[in-house]
Structures
1.
Amino acid sequence: MTDSSQNGGVERTFFLNDPKVRAIIYQVVMVAIVVWAGWSIVDNTATNLNERGIPFGFDFLTAPSGFGINQSLIPYSESSTYGDVYWVGLINTLLVAVIGVFFATILGFLIGIARLSHNWLIARIATVYIEIIRNVPLLLQLFVWYFAVLRLLPAKREALDLGPIGLLNIAGFYAPKPIFGANTWMVGVAILIAIALGIGIRFWARRRQMATGQQFPIGWTFIGLLIVLPLIAYFISGDPITFEYPELARFGPQGGIRVIPEFIGLLLALTLYTAAFIAEIVRAGIMAVSHGQTEAAHALGLRNGPTLRLVIVPQAMRVIIPPLTSQYLNLTKNSSLAVAIAYPDLVSTFTGTALNQTGRAVEIILMTMLTYLAISLLTSAFMNWYNKRVALVER
Amino acid sequence: MKKIIKVALAAAFGLAGVATAQAGTLQDVQAKGFVQCGSNGSLPGFGVPDDQGNWTGLDVDYCRALAAAVFGDPNAVKFTPLSAKERFTALQSGEVDVLSRNTTWTMTRDASLGLNFVGVDYYDGQGFMVRKSLDVSSALELSGAAVCTNTGTTTELNVADYFRANNLDYEVVAFEKGDEVIAAYDAGRCDVFTTDASGLYAERLKLTNPDEHMILPEIISKEPLGPVVRQGDDEWFNVNKWVLNAIINAEDLGVNQANVDQMLGSDNPEIRRLLGAEGTFGEMIGLSNDWAYNVIKMVGNYADIFDRNVGPDTPLGISRGLNALWSKGGILYAPPIR
Ligand SMILES: N[C@@H](CCC(=O)N[C@@H](CS)C(=O)NCC(=O)O)C(=O)O
């Protein structure tokens, strides 16, 4: 028999050597360090600002900014406030991020699938594209796109006439601006009716397929409805929409809807760059679905299209979505490189000009950091929700 | 356990140590053996390094003069190139000891950034450059024009004021770096390039065809440019002020780089005080009494510095204008050394 049974069965150890106690101590110490570090940073900043006579506060947000911004989706002028500058910058950031995510996703999926293509040339082109784009720094690509685009386009007093699409020159792209006449509402109503009909048909087609097994071309019908109904309404209501075409004036085209070249350059760079990463993610996702799935689908009599759409892609999505989310976040954060080519995003207008004119570095950097954090967290939350929806439901 | 406590304490004290006292820049500078000077990295005539890393320019020479006064060595200075946007943060955070980067003295900057302007070393004003082919002769004809400029400058505000006050439409295209502004203007993105008039002359040199561009007659603002130091360090503030004053007074008194040794024997009491032959003026500001002698001998007086960097015989070819001495039709004037 061992000693322990003679001593009453309990082996005493020094309490610090108890793993449970240790774990608690470590955590307490960790929390203390974090709190202390955080407090020190705040305290130091406050003390230093105070010593140097730099005021702290957010009252500057209501002061007039006094400078101009060349792209704003909300009303803005030099007499607007620094608070308005924040919103203008934020909206410009979101604008380029959302449109960039949209195009990068489409392009990325196309290139990713192209890289898996059995056509040697298509697969090679996709590979070359991905390797070049992924391995050149984004800032460099941004300069190439911006300055190359600028140098290739006609000068300000000339323009490439794209006919009904608009004018293009170094000062940007000028699209015709629709002017809505009194009867435009009829067209709007026609669009709504088309959508409602589309939903109804889908419902009916599902029921019919369940009952009889017969399929119905929902997609084509819907597109047809969406074109034909508004067109009929348009002509019945007497041609209510007219267009204001941009015209060349002394300092370049005037009128129409203008897209500034800084936006085009930034959008091109962000889209092409991120698409290369998305393409690789898509390729990985598709390759993660075993070939047996395709064979099984074929054995059930599904053709290639439905196999991809109904069997492969839904399973690939589970692998694709988490890394896709980080690419969306990257694109949004990379949009802050805008400052290099004068696109008035949040970093350029708010942490650039506004910070410099007011000197409120701490306040402005804090606000900007929290804003980017919020955008990132919201994007992640949305993608997580979507990921849950497409996750494999195990039975 | 002990290790962890040690690390924690070190981290805590390390952080607490960040709150360094801000007075004593002169002692700090003397201890490290050089002046850290924030300057423009790409403005010929004011602050720019050549391909061997030798810095030249009017703003650069001010820092060299400061080094000559403190160390008797105009090369005891290191330069940090700063963009318009970075400059004040760099000075506030102590990354540089002095900011000498074509910086306009304005009330907001003086009163709310925790900084002090040392004085004025170049009286400037904002101007416009356009292509000759645009066929305009006045800024008032610029309604509808796109204007290229630098982020974080007085320029950005002045241009808004000017166009608004004159009821002109405009589009501002603001870049962070000067080189990008001029590249975009050169590419034709903007009809107008605007900045301080001195900057226009300097940046014009970077254009593909400088002769195809002209500077419009309007000067739309006052841009007194000068060095800046942190607020709350009077000793360092004084050193900077009097180095600048000595440079200007030397020209006033006819003392220059070429004749300063002769002038040591002058019996003009003002010159004797300037050069340290009489009085203890250097000691009053914590330096040696030959401080100003060193500045003039090693860097020069205002005329030497101006002519060497931006004057009529340089590529910039700027005439003295407002920057001539008060006694010669300009407004350059410094309090006396006495
Ligand atoms: N004096 C004005 C403007 C100073 C400024 O940044 N000027 C521009 C244009 S000359 C410049 O130095 N650019 C050079 C660069 O940023 O590299 C101010 O203090 O705000």
2.
Amino acid sequence: MKKEIIKIENLKREFRMGTETVHALKGISFDIKEGEFVTIMGSSGSGKSTMLNILGCLDQPTSGLYEIDGVSVKDLSRNELATIRNEKIGFIFQSYNLLARTSAIENVELPLLYNSKVSTEERRERAIKALEMVGLGERLHHTPSQLSGGQQQRVAIARSLVNNPVMILADEATGNLDTRTSYEIMSLFQELNKKGITITFVTHEPDIATFSSRTVVLKDGEIMQDYQNHNVQSAATELAKLPKQDH
Amino acid sequence: MRLLNLFKIATKAIILNKTRTLLTMLGIIIGVASVIAMLAIGEGSKESIRESISAMGSNMITIKPGADDKGAVRGSGGDVQTLTLQNYEVIKEKASLLSYVTPVVNGSGQVINGSNNWPSSIYGVNPDYIKIKVVGLQSGSMFTDAEVKSASKVAVIGQTVVDNVFPDGQDPVGQMIRFNNIPFKVIGVLEEKGENTFGQDQDDVVLAPYTTVQKRILAIDHLNQIIASAISEDEASKAVTQVTELLRSEHKILDNEEDDFTVKSMEELISTFSSTTEMLTILLVAVASISLLIGGIGIMNIMYVSVKERTKEIGLRMAVGAKGADILMQFLIEAILISITGGILGVLLGLGASVFIEQFLGWPTSVALYSIIISFAVCAVTGIFFGWYPARKASALDPITALRYE
Ligand SMILES: Nc1ncnc2c1ncn2[C@@H]1O[C@H](COP(=O)(O)OP(=O)(O)OP(=O)(O)O)[C@@H](O)[C@H]1O
Ligand SMILES: [Mg+2]
């Protein structure tokens, strides 16, 4: 029996907007075990991003329990949360959130700047390696405005990998990529998953979900479905099946 | 290591935002520079007044008739006639702390030599006068005590008078001139002294024995003033007391009555003028402080806006693991770098402006260290505070709230 890396119970998140209250999450309970590859699906506005932000320690739930690696997040100080985000979690934002006018490599280096255990040389090396992994080895010094949407997304992916996280939280990380590139990225994620990294992946596309071991479907802030995928596809194989591109 | 990284981040942000940084600095630069330059002008004029007053003889003591009319420094006692020759003689005899004493009677009139004439002033004095005023002779000699006693019609004249009544370069010594139609024989020419601080031409003067001036020109018995010099600068204030006591007993002034004369040392004269220039300095500094304040508000504005518009960046940094302290440190370093660079540039500009003012406008300037420190500190503090305050607020947000900030 693998240990639970994430455990949430009756998690609620409400947003106050003046007199109105938006119930984005209406009491969600589930857990994710170490080494799982979970996709979260659901229509727009169903609360996927809201949940992922809480899982990534970027936001606090209104009520309910959230334990990460057996520790209740509520009991952690702001600094401890920062350290968890820095060393344990790789987060990919739906809107990339790259620093403008800053080169790809510097964007990828960013998490390591706040980790004093990593030297300048190591930081650079790891950033280059991460960018190569997402196929941007040739674009190290381009700034976001000089990159396509898909390339920016890949920089964001590289940034989430650079700190060797135990857990990757991705919010529509392939939303802007063509089929081929998104399969490449999925095959990269599958490889990382095989190495033991837990992945939680928000997506709209059902074919992406077939690469994961489990799917959770949200609707209006509640869990609709939560099922294991017994027939996990290999992204690498699917990639090979795609018609070859001419160069 | 971490601090070094934050330093790098901060310098990067400054370089990325050149224009904004420059605008922020501009406020600091102008504020600091103007305070320094204004204070330099104030200090400079204070010093130059002090210097030129000292050049008039720093041991000098002046005794004027009439009570001290506060502030009215130029008022020469007008028609008060409380100083007499006898007073002078008592002072000369009894005031042990004085080395030289001379009575002064003065009036104005026309100096005439042939067809040349020139309006000037005549000073009736004794030979001590040139010792007290520390002025030498460029040719001829000063009149003697004997000539004073016999009320001889001899005169020593200043260069301006020479230039105007002997325009063809003739040696004036030995020549006759007329002052208000009284003939005088020129026996000496004073060294040139130029203008004093108050723009008075010190060379536009005719010196003659006071006896002659009293009898022939002014027809008076009293004295306009008595000037003396103390045996040393240190003894000047004691000498003032001594003279005051002598004159009070001479004038039979009761203990509860005020002096009917005024005795002042150079030191007191300097402080009278210093208070005038101090007013000027305060005025200049007030104006400069306003520009420093405006500079400070500028820094405040730009820092505030800059942190606000970077709330998203702050959110992202926190999302990837920056702690609140890291964010604060980054902005603090940024603010310090901007303030200090701006401050240094401001100091340099202020020094440059002071040199420029001195060189091209001819106003004396003197840069005081405290002006540099104060203006620098004010700017640095505003810059740092207003960089730090909004950054602290942003770093207290949840990362996602900061990231969402538009
Ligand atoms: N900061 C906020 N303030 C107010 N309401 C919010 C806020 N964030 C999210 N919501 C609301 O919460 C609900 C869930 O939003 P969320 O972003 O989680 O949706 P999502 O499932 O990620 O949608 P999408 O697929 O479009 O990204 C929405 O109704 C949204 O309007
Ligand atoms: Mg979303």
